[in-house]
Amino acid sequence: MLERHIQNEQQLSELCEQLAQSPWLALDTEFVREKTYYPQFCLLQISNGDIAASVDPIQIKELQPLLDLLYDENIVKVFHAGRQDLEIFHHLWGRLPTPLFDTQLAASLLGLGDQVGYGNLVEKLLNQSLEKGHTRTDWSRRPLDEAQLRYALDDVIYLGELYLTLKQRLQAEGREGWLRDDFDQLANPDTYSNPPQEAWKRIKGRQQLKGVQLAVLQALAAWREREAQQANRPKRWILKDEVLADLARRQPKALDQLEKIRGLEPGAIKRRGELLLKLIADARALPREQWPRDKRRAVRLTPNQEALTDMLYGCLRLLAEQNNITPAALAGRKEIEALVSGERELEILHGWRRVIAGNRLLQVLDGKYWPELDDGQVILSERSPDA
Length: 387
Fold this sequence. Notes:
By secondary structure, the chain is an alpha/beta fold. Helix content is 47%, strand content 12%.
């Protein structure tokens, strides 16, 4: 395989011409975001199976030939666990490269592991061991040395072969179309948007809050999200999650009460104390119907529902085994509890998970199917209408 490191516009144009007729491209990115809200794009690795190249977006200012290639609808773009890579495309250029294929999602559907890592999958399917020594590299620093570039290229050199292998297996098992919903979600811009009013749903500790406390948390988290986006700084640099949760829980009304919030530094109180108090007061004044509800909050099940959850989770394990998939790839116990309690906006009821297990679990809930013993083996049997 020809390997190249692309550092100027002429080299980039030549590379894009060489790759223009490729049926697929394996892609990966390197970025840093320890000191920023948005990821800082540092390197793009690309391969079509014959050529593997690393493209330096820090040194190359005009990337249009690359964008024309990446947004070509006739070329499949292959990623492994590509959500963070795709976030860069969405942030920098406002759209996502399609069509997509994600090898981690495909591996999960084929029973090769739930959220299996790239290196493990390469070793499992291709019998190759990858270097792991540069996982903490600062990719924004220049120049990059040969070892760093070698490590980066490995992330796409084997990715195309994984894609072809997994695609063939999916076709052989008649499952290729089952991933369409997952790939559509990856290609949906809404997946990468972070509206401030929804930021409270990602705050650690929110599960212990309820009622007006969630309204206060929503206001505080939305303010922090806007601040972080505008300044392009990590959210934790403004206020940590645990501070927001504590403010929402205790709802201080005066500056001296802010001093009792653990983790809220004197400097932050001086700069933002009055603003925080106003945000809290305004949220407390909202009418009850405007308070947010945490749909992911743990539901309190009755003893009968607990027993039903146990039974459904057993059915899930049975269905997973029949389809050579780990139960965790289908759903966790919390999701089964939500299903029992009446929730229907669940992953188990979308895409291939619904095909394999979701529909059958709903039929069990409706009494149309039932687990029973057959010669010592548990099976799901259809119940007759008069049973």
